Amino acid sequence: MVPATPFLLVLFLALGAHSLSTEKCSLTGSWKNDLGSNMTISKVRETGDFTGIYFTAVSASPKKIEKSPLQGFQHLHPLSQPTFGFTVNWTFSDTITVFTGQCFVDDNGKEILKTMWLLRLHADKLGNNWKST
């Protein structure tokens, strides 16, 4: 009689293997979002850290939009679609934005970043803290 646990594991691996991406998603390079913002990420180092430039197409600041530096970190593990996070220090305003997300490879081999972000405005006093994030 064949033990059920190893058989189920082998069956799971056989059936589930097709859904795992064999293509590795790389953050390095230029990215453009659906609003027209552009981001360029330099090479991701062996430690997972990276730097780059973000040029947003959207801003509530009355000042001219400028390229802003970013610093981030990618989770290094054997999976091909890594999670990451980075911070943008906006050079034209008193705000900072943090992004977190994951790099995916779709069925056509296209790399896609899915992110969430949180923007922090400068608060002039403690009482205004609640409306600054």
Q: What layout of secondary structure does this protein have?
A:
Layout: H1 4-16, E1 29-32, E2 38-41, E3 49-55, E4 68-74, E5 83-89, E6 95-105, E7 111-121
Antiparallel strand pairs: 1-2, 2-3, 3-4, 4-5, 5-6, 6-7
Question: Please, could you describe this protein's structure?
Answer:
This protein is elongated. The chain is mainly beta. It has a single domain, classed as Lipocalin. It contains one helix and seven strands. The chain has a seven-stranded antiparallel sheet with strand order 1-2-3-4-5-6-7, with no helix packed on it.
Radius of gyration: 20 Å
What is the number of helical segments per DSSP (H or I, 4+ residues)?
1
Question: What average pLDDT do the residues reach?
Answer: 84
For the biggest β-sheet, the strand order reads 1-2-3-4-5-6-7
Tally of domains: 1
Question: Approximately how much beta-strand content do the residues carry?
Answer: 35-45%
The CATH topology corresponds to Lipocalin
**How widely separated are the two ends?**
61 Å
Structural class: mainly beta
| Fraction of residues in H or I helices | under 10%
Question: What is the CATH C level class, in words?
Answer: Mainly Beta
> What string, H for helix and E for strand, traces the elements in order?
HEEEEEEE
The unreliable regions are: 4-19
CATH superfamily: Avidin-like
Q: Give the name of the CATH architecture.
A: Beta Barrel
How many extended strands?
7
Major β-sheet profile: 7 strands, antiparallel
Global morphology? elongated
